[in-house]
């Protein structure tokens, strides 16, 4: 997906200049310009801040229009929607957080994600905050989760549940990939 082009399209649809969007999101208009030209990839947290300023969820941002009004109940791994454009690092050392959403969250009261954190990856230097609650269970690997002032390393089988309005961050500072299955209600990510 052309994240920069999509960001520019959304900004222009809302009648915002780069400067106005930057002021609303607490970023520089230079940063917005670089993102729109795909010369800089936003972290999950930065993109969330930008979309909150519009307002729009990550799910809506990455949503492909589903033409079928018929409800869909079953999904293959190829049906999941990728919500994370982030690249961290350079070249072969790049670590990309993957947030794959099951179905169209705008049609439901629950958002379910399959998250993959390669070694050295995280959700970004800014903490995430959004309405709702979220929970998750570590399936594989280790993940450091920060919620407010608390930091905890979770192992396979461990989980978390918290009010998403609390500042939070996910980071894999370990040598193996980490996989988490998470849910958020209402869908706000």
Describe this structure in words.
By secondary structure, the chain is of the alpha+beta class. Helix content is 22%, strand content 25%. The chain has 5 helices and 9 strands, in the order H-H-H-H-H-E-E-E-E-E-E-E-E-E. The protein has helices at 3-13, 18-25, 29-36, 44-52, 58-62; strands at residues 81-82, 98-101, 111-117, 133-140, 143-147, 150-154, 159-163, 168-171, 178-185. Strands 1-2-3-9-4-7 form a 6-stranded antiparallel sheet, with no helix packed on it. The chain has a 3-stranded antiparallel sheet with strand order 6-5-8, with no helix packed on it. Strand 5 (143-147) and strand 6 (150-154) form a beta hairpin. The longest helix has 11 residues, at 3-13. The radius of gyration is 16 Å and the shape is globular. The two termini are 18 Å apart. 28% of the residues are buried.
Quick description:
With 189 residues, the protein is α+β, with helices and mostly antiparallel strands. It contains five helices and nine strands, in the order αααααβββββββββ.
Give keywords:
single chain; 189 residues; alpha+beta; 6-stranded antiparallel beta sheet; 5 helices; 9 strands; 22% helix
